[in-house]
Write a structure and sequence with these properties.
The complex is a heterotrimer. Helix content of chain A is 40%, strand content 20%. Chain A is an alpha+beta fold. Chain A has two domains: 99 residues, no CATH class; 123 residues, Sandwich (Immunoglobulin-like), CATH 2.60.40.420. In chain A, the strands form two sheets. Chain A has a five-stranded mixed beta sheet with strand order 3-2-1-5-8. A five-stranded mixed beta sheet of chain A has the order 4-10-9-6-7. Chain A is elongated, with a radius of gyration of 27 Å. By secondary structure, chain B is mainly α. In chain B, strands 1-2 form a two-stranded antiparallel sheet. In chain B, helix 6 runs antiparallel to helix 8 and helix 6 runs parallel beside helix 9. The two termini of chain B are 34 Å apart. Chain C has one domain: Up-down Bundle (Four Helix Bundle (Hemerythrin (Met), subunit A)). Chain C is built from five helices and no strands. In chain C, helix 2 packs antiparallel against helix 5. The longest helix of chain C is centred in the first third of the chain and has 36 residues. The N and C termini of chain C lie far apart (52 Å). Classes of the chains: A alpha+beta, B mainly alpha, C mainly alpha. Chains in contact: A-B, A-C, B-C. Chains A and B meet through helix 1, helix 2, helix 3, strand 7 and strand 9 of A and helix 7, helix 10, helix 13, helix 14 and helix 15 of B.
Chain lengths: 285, 631, 200
């Protein structure tokens, strides 16, 4: 290795850093300001907003990392390319302790920061971020005792909803009140489904024999999309319907109407329970 | 077993009769009927009791006897019975010359490697064809042209076949063929087990495909119970095939692990071991520990279906969380069973065409071992929203994100190796470099999924699907094709057409990205996985993806055309070392002699000493005295 | 057997110690695989017991499966004795390996037979709740694994009695390997006994 060659090393490095800085300076504002407002799942609820923030931050953090790697690669392709048929050996560099240490420390710091930040937003920041937390939630929002419980029952291939505070009323469409903390109790009576209320930012598996709780606090009225996010058989793709976030008064009116509409059915329903165990499908004596 | 002294080639009909694939098929099919009958006798009235119209006991017994028939027909029973009758142990058998050995049990690791290459390759293309049919369905948001049940079967067959086959995608063909050559051995540690691992693969593939005849599979490749429990008889095929493949994987891992640990040539110290062998070693550790758990899990599903146990039925005291825990305890190491050999391949290819030593060799090894260790501690991130152990989520978030540190090492190795190198853009190099681009996107999109708030958005959506296709298809399959173009001249002795190869690469790379990148958006726009119908406003996006996917499929046809053209028509003989590589395997003549090495070589330097002044040749092939094998 | 005439068989040119080392290491790896296989059942037991879904871990109301403890103890003793004898042949008294392997084979077969006898008079079926499922699955598959190990023991014995002790090094490795696998299986059996018969 001659001195001229070694003198070139920092110039390559500086060029790569320069290109990367320029690209990052362009990309990050674009992500935050232009792409960010379109990232899912929107700001209909506090939980959805926390997911949106997480998605924006993730993208804004990970794109520069991707850019750094891509710039290193593409720069190498352009500058260190060997043209023609002749095969020549490059300089026998076998490693550089400092560079390796720097990389390890850097990636470790990013990863640890992500994990700490993720845990914080999950537990304290967003109270479970709308994800299913099982029968005994660890991340409870303030006033969770007074949350409106709404049971979501998955079955092949339909969602039904029960409101225990309104006499165990069962409906085929979902409405929740605005500005009220809602506790979804998701369960299933046959196979595993996953309750996905897209704009609400709620996703909780519907598991037979399990009461899976997810909290959500809506800020805005409007429609949201319900889907099934876990393969549950033939018509998995058809377990979709629209739900509504209603103002408090509209919600009370909706409940009253639903009670009247479903009064005849209520007599045949099993008593409200956190989980249901229908007779096993495939048991022999 | 005494071969006649004078080799007289018998007529073709004489060669067809005997222990080979045809006999195996015949006995396998006979066994299916025999087993079905026995199973029927065992469980008279079983179907009536279960309230279903199928007798799972009969089906499982049919498969069991079919497998036994297949193996007996191939000649796997001869040796065990012979041993019980006092036949002295031998290590190798049926290492005959001629093309018929490819259709028999053969203990030559090079034959097994080529068997694997074509066997697994065929199933890979069948799986790919399923993907084409799936994308045809998704051209429209309604169930056309396939009804929902057929579509689900396509999804499940695609997923299961790809996962089963790609698990041995690199270790099967290239691990078996090249590990002994790279470590200076004449054979694998257990040649007969090696032959068995291969012949279980076509059995598993055929059994899996038989699901089409038994009502299909409705669960996707993950086969979640209790959906699997209520599924039709096609599920029995899924369970049996997965058990077979998991046994095969366990034995592949055992064989390679022991081979690498005990059979290295003298002088092949741990720091001189080719990085591909390190990748194989790490993968083998995962295989021998993770695959048995899958066997156990699938056995539980089998018992739930056939013997009426209730491991996974909540109403009868079981829990589907048990299935998810056990499945992903296998399933997440499985993901790295797919990824690690890819790391090994690309890091093996990179120094050859960068003409530089592998930068940060020890870091690469540490990365692979780190991934191996951590991969057993991350499985519950598949259950982030399932509602189990919500308090553990921060722990699994941490371990999942930690695994990106050792994975990052591999990228640093690549950057360092390319640094001031003399890069030649040959076809294997192009595939290796594309691996890094795709895996970068795949890996970073995984960080979204590791963070619970982001995961709540993306879990179970097309985002996940795009993520793991970027790592498996963009990673493993690109590495596989890199290895094919890199090593095929040595394996088959012919040179592949470079122009066609470059067209294949560019089409595959471009259309791979055009297919899967938009699917991240589909996931963000609330499209769940495995649906045969979707929101109408996503049709443009899906049509674009389907069109790209068809072009991606077409690029595979170019590869097949190239392979057939080069292998059958052009037949340009390959040089012994066309890439001027320092790898030990390239120092051997082409075709590789049956015994690989006339004498066990003595390794004198590392395989990546490009440009190192005064580096000795990689090995001494004519050591003065025959040294003891091993180091 | 081989229909292709002119087949060339490769002479064994490696020294015997490579094969012995392969068997030694391979048996360890195989034992690890078996341990992970039973780990799934171990986990299933603890997990389903802790969850007790629908309150029927121990079976339907008024019908609690209770496998016979006598059979359990008999199987446990057979497996432990088998492992002790086989392992002892490898480490304590190598000269007695032939007798020890024969005794171990008989004991292992006895354990399998006892398991079959227990299944035929179980008093409950796999349908009776999660505990019954784990019991039937774990015991049954353990017996199968033991049977597989019996084949290995059988080969060790038979090829030496027929062909004479042609390569003592390899034979010693095989005795050692099968002994180690039996030792791990004995560990599994202890766990199984404690969980399936005592803890329940």
């Amino acid at each position: 290795m001659t001195e001229i060659v070694s003198g070139r090393i920092p110039r390559h490095g500086r060029r790569i850093i320069g290109i990367w800085l320029v690209l990052t300076a362009v990309a990050v504002p674009l992500i935050v300001l232009v792409l960010g407002p379109h990232l899912p799942p929107g700001r209909m609820t506090a939980e959805a907003a926390s997911q949106r923030d997480a998605n924006v931050l993730m993208t804004a953090l990970l794109v520069p990392i991707a850019l750094l790697v891509v710039v290193c690669f593409v720069y190498s392709f352009a500058v260190f390319r060997q043209r023609g048929e002749v095969i020549l050996d490059g300089p026998p560099l076998k490693g550089h302790a400092g560079a390796q240490l720097f990389w390890i420390v850097l990636t470790s710091l990013i990863v640890l920061a992500l994990a700490v930040w993720g845990s914080y937003t999950l537990i304290a920041g967003s109270h479970g971020a709308g994800g299913g937390q099982g029968p005994d939630p660890v991340a409870k929002p303030n006033g969770y005792q007074h949350a409106l419980p709404v049971q979501v029952i998955g079955q092949q291939w339909e969602w039904t909803f029960r409101y225990p505070t309104y006499g165990g009323l069962e409906t085929r469409d979902l409405a929740i009140p605005n500005h009220v903390l809602v506790a979804f109790h998701v369960t299933s009576i046959d196979v595993t489904h996953s309750f996905w209320a897209y704009e609400l930012g709620v996703k909780a598996d519907a598991v037979p024999g399990v009461d899976n709780v997810a909290y959500v606090h809506a800020h805005k009225t409007g429609f949201f999309q319900i889907r099934c996010a876990e393969l549950c058989g033939l018509w998995h793709g058809h377990m979709a319907k629209k739900g509504r976030v209603l103002s408090s008064s509209a919600f009370q009116a909706w409940i009253a109407a639903a009670k009247t509409k479903n009064a005849a059915v209520m007599a045949y329903l099993p008593k409200y329970n956190r989980v249901y165990f229908p007779a096993p499908l495939r048991r022999a004596g | 077993m005494s071969a006649t002294a004078i080799a007289v080639r018998p007529p073709v009909w004489r060669r067809v009769i005997g222990f080979n694939m045809l006999t195996g098929l015949a006995l396998g099919i006979s066994g299916w009927f025999l087993g079905g009958w026995i199973g029927g006798q065992m469980a008279v009235g079983h179907d009536y009791l279960l309230g279903t119209d199928q007798n799972d006991v009969g089906i499982f017994m049919g498969y069991l006897f079919a497998i036994i028939g297949w193996l007996v027909g191939l000649g796997f029973a001869n040796y065990p019975i012979g041993r019980l009758l006092g036949r002295s142990p031998t290590l190798r058998e049926h290492e005959t010359a001629g093309w018929t050995r490819y259709f028999k049990m053969c203990t030559d690791h090079k034959v097994v490697g080529i068997q694997y290459l074509f066997g697994v390759g065929i199933f890979f293309f069948i799986g790919g064809l399923n993907a084409m049919l799936m994308r045809t369905e998704l051209l429209r948001p309604v169930e056309r042209p396939w009804p929902a049940g057929q579509y689900l079967t396509l999804v499940s067959l695609h997923g299961t076949m790809m996962i089963m086959m790609t698990s041995a995608f690199i270790l099967g063909p290239f691990g078996n063929y090249f590990v002994p050559l790279m470590i200076g051995a004449r054979r694998m540690a257990f040649p007969r087990i090696e032959a068995l691992t291969f012949w279980l693969v076509p059995a598993a593939g055929l059994i899996l495909m038989s699901a089409i005849a038994f009502g299909g599979i409705a669960t996707g490749w993950t086969g979640y119970s209790p959906l699997a429990d209520e599924g039709r008889a096609g599920m029995d095929a899924y369970v049996t095939a997965f058990i077979l493949i998991a046994i095969s994987l366990t034995l592949v891992g055992l064989n390679l692990l022991v081979t690498i640990l005990t059979m290295r040539a003298p002088g092949l110290t741990w720091t001189r071991l080719p990085i591909f062998v390190w990748g194989v070693l790490a993968t083998s550790v995962l295989m021998v520990l993770a695959a048995p758990v899958l066997v156990a899990t699938m056995t539980m599903v089998l018992m739930d279906r056939a013997a009426n146990t209730s491991f996974f039925l909540a109403s009868a005291g079981g829990s589907q969380y048990l299935y998810q825990n056990l499945f992903w305890f296998f399933g997440h190491p499985e993901v790295y069973i797919l990824a690690l050999p890819g790391f090994g391949i690309v890091l093996e290819i990179l120094p050859v065409f960068a003409r530089k030593p592998l930068w940060g060799y020890r870091l690469a090894v540490a990365g692979m071992l780190g991934v191996t260790l951590l991969s057993f501690m991350v499985w519950q991130h598949h259950l982030f929203v399932s509602g189990m152990n919500a308090g553990l989520r921060p722990f699994y978030m941490l371990t999942t994100e930690l695994i990106s540190i050792p994975t990052g090492f591999i990228f640093l190795n690549a950057i360092g190796t390319l640094w001031r190198a003399r890069i030649r853009f040959t076809v294997p190099m192009l595939f290796a470099l594309a691996f890094f681009f795709n895996f970068l996107i795949g890996g970073l999109s995984g960080v979204f999924l590791s963070d619970v708030p982001s995961d709540v958005t993306t879990h179970g959506s097309y985002f996940v699907m795009a993520h793991f296709h970027y790592t498996i298809m963009g990673g493993l399959v690109f590495a596989f094709f890199g290895a094919v173009y890199y090593w095929l001249p040595k394996m088959l002795g012919v040179t592949l057409n470079e122009t066609l190869a470059k067209i294949h690469f560019w089409m595959m790379f471009v259309f791979f990205n055009l297919t899967f990148f938009p699917l991240f958006a589909a996931g963000f726009l609330d499209m769940p996985r495995r649906v045969s119908t979707y929101a109408p406003h996503l049709q443009v996006l899906n049509d674009f993806v389907s069109a790209s996917a068809f072009m991606l499929g077409f690029s595979m046809l170019i590869f097949i055309a190239n392979l057939v053209w080069s292998l059958v028509f052009a037949r340009v003989p390959a040089l012994a070392n066309p890439w001027a590589s320092r790898g030990l395997e390239w120092q051997l003549p082409t075709p590789v002699p049956t015994e690989n090495f006339e004498r066990i070589p003595v390794i004198t330097s590392g395989p990546y000493e490009y440009g190192v002044a005064g580096a000795p040749p990689v090995a001494d092939f004519t050591p003065a005295a025959l040294p003891a094998a091993g180091s | 057997m081989d229909t292709t005439a002119g087949g060339t068989h490769i002479e064994e040119i490696e020294p015997g110690d490579v094969l012995a080392r392969n068997i030694h290491l391979g048996s360890r790896v195989w034992a690890a695989s078996e341990a992970f296989f039973f780990l799934a059942f171990f986990f299933a037991f603890l997990y389903l017991r802790a969850l007790n879904t629908n309150g029927i871990w121990r079976g339907w109301p008024h019908h609690h499966p209770n496998p016979s403890l006598a059979f359990g103890i008999a199987i446990l003793i057979c497996v432990l004795a088998c492992a002790a004898v086989a392992r002892g042949a490898a480490s304590v008294a190598p000269a007695m390996w032939r007798n020890a392997a024969s005794v171990a084979l008989v004991l292992a077969l006895a354990a399998v037979g006892l398991q079959a006898a227990q299944f035929s008079s179980l008093g409950f079926g796999p349908t009776d709740g999660a505990y019954a499922s784990v019991f039937v699955g774990w015991s049954g598959l353990f017996a199968l694994m033991l049977l597989g190990t019996c084949y290995w023991l059988g080969t060790v014995l038979s090829d030496v009695t027929r062909a004479g002790d042609a390569s003592p090094e390899v034979r010693a490795a095989a005795v050692d390997g099968v002994g180690f696998v039996l030792l791990v299986l004995a560990g599994v059996e202890i766990a199984a006994f404690i969980l399936l018969y005592i803890v329940k």
